[in-house]
Amino acid sequence: MIAFRQLALQRGTRRLIEDADLMLHEGHKVGLIGANGAGKSSLFALLRGELSADAGSVEIAGGKRIAHMAQEVSAIDRALVEFVLDGDVALREAERALSDAQRAGDMAREAELHGQIEALDGYTARARAEQLLAGLGFAQQDLYRPLADFSGGWRMRVGLARTLFTPSEILLLDEPTNHLDLDALVWLEQWLTRYPGTLMLISHDRDFLDAVCDHILHIDQGRLTLYRGHYSAFERARAERQAQQQAQFEKQQARRAEIESFVARFRAKATKARQAQSRLKMLERMENIAAARADSPFRFRLPCADKTSSPLLSLNQATLGYPERAILEGVNVSLLPGERIGLLGPNGAGKSTLIKTLIGELPPREGERVAGENLAVGYFAQHQLEYLDLHATPFTHVQRLSPSASDQSIRDFLGGFGFRGDDAFGDVALFSGGEKARLALALVAWEKPNLMLLDEPTNHLDLDMREALAEALAEYEGAVVIVSHDRHLLRATVDGFWRVVDGRVEPFDGDLDDYHQWLKQREAASRQAAREEKRPAGSGDSGDRKAARRAAAELRERTKPLRRERDTLEKKLEKAQATLSGIETQLADPELYDAARKDELTRLVREQGECQAEVESLESEWLKAEEALEALEAELSAAT
């Protein structure tokens, strides 16, 4: 479907991609990854026809429609649903033509256009647009409000909904999760796994890449390499390839040294001069193998204040919110030294309100906020980048916080966040979003807090920096409260969760998988409640209750085979995943890559591929069974 033929792409004097020669087939779901500035967005622009190749070509199968996300969505007066519907240009043109035909009284043309709209699935379009917006977190009462009423982040969600609604065979998504909460992200994962076309996705969320992608396309040092499998499989394959490359490099260097030693010893001897010249030519012909390099250039630590209090901070019988309305009521929480909490809940439920109250920015409407004597708060806001001075340098930002700090200590500190050498003295206005996010994190860390509150800290961070942040938070000695849609970060750094929903804050007894299940149950209960509301009055008598029980029994009986099939597949999947996990544990052993264990490594890599394929197949079968079960349950429920 998409073929790269000896492709070269250049921006200015810099080659982004060279000699790319590969093919992406129909239905592939491809994660496009690489360092910031490697050329990911430029490759998307090339596919959209906005850039031309400097050499070679990109070939896309004829007639394939491409949908892609806009970089920003303007604050216009168009209603959300109407803006999403505008994504289907053919449907909108048919609707306009129908209106013209109706005004002209052209009944033959009307009939023709009704058939055309039917063929475009136009009579379900509004319901589909509303479902997309609801899945991305919009309340029913907001669907017909104008775009201008919403912030930039929410408008980007509308833009994403429009992109998903647009008919396409090729879908290009550039960082679609940046403005989503965890609930909407899970919904988007499920939508994309069902998308029938070819997907290319730029993302720095490793769990999202794992859930959605079946191939990874890696841009590294101008080379495009396609890996089969999701992101975790790519990491393993990449590590194996780097280990092999390093071994080949060391072997070649040893051979070079041997040849150079021979030439140095015998070049001047007549009897050996011919052999020496032969070996010099051998050196010239020898293809250089680069030393394998570590991908992540980042490694930093988050210092903690020397003194602490227990508890660090408490909210007692607190009502949180704003002068015009309360958001959360009856809040009783305490944060102890070293405690690590992740906040769960949909956007708008009050997570940011809770954080603003914890840091003291927003006083409780009722109740009290009690801070420990030695509390030192570090706060990374969701829009922290807006508080940076664009006309200052990273060095100046830190120096303003601590005028007496030595120049060397500031430079050493900034170096850990990737601002080495002259980069520490560059204007922030010229920085990318990722560089600004790194600086904002550095400024929080410089203050040495014993309580860090982080509201979506991974927005704009690439995979390397996210991993560095996860490691730094894991080693951090203070308390942490995090709001994030990055599940890898949450799994790596928090010990427990608070659920913020329905005006309450309460401990959540479970992990992220349990939260996912809770969301599904909550959604099912919401649908059931909506059906109950539609039932006519007086339907709650004993006769109806008997009928409801009979219907429930029938539902259980008719869904029993599908439930049995789903449960069987789930058990097989769990067994296959356990086997795969065992193989991956063995592959993580550095000693396995010794030359003496080459056969064992080859066997394990083969078994890993076979097991991964089995897991993917079982996951696909399980998903189909689950969807079939849900569809049957919905059909039977609607019928009753």
From TrEMBL:
- Print the keywords alphabetically: ATP-binding, Nucleotide-binding, Repeat
The ABC transporter domain covers 2-246, 313-527
Tagged with keyword ATP-binding: yes
Q: Which GO terms describe its molecular function?
A: ATP binding
Q: Does the keyword Repeat apply?
A: yes
Q: SMART domains per the record? A: AAA
Stretch list, region Disordered: 523-566
- This chain belongs to which protein, by name? ABC transporter ATP-binding protein
Q: Which organism is it from?
A: Salinicola rhizosphaerae
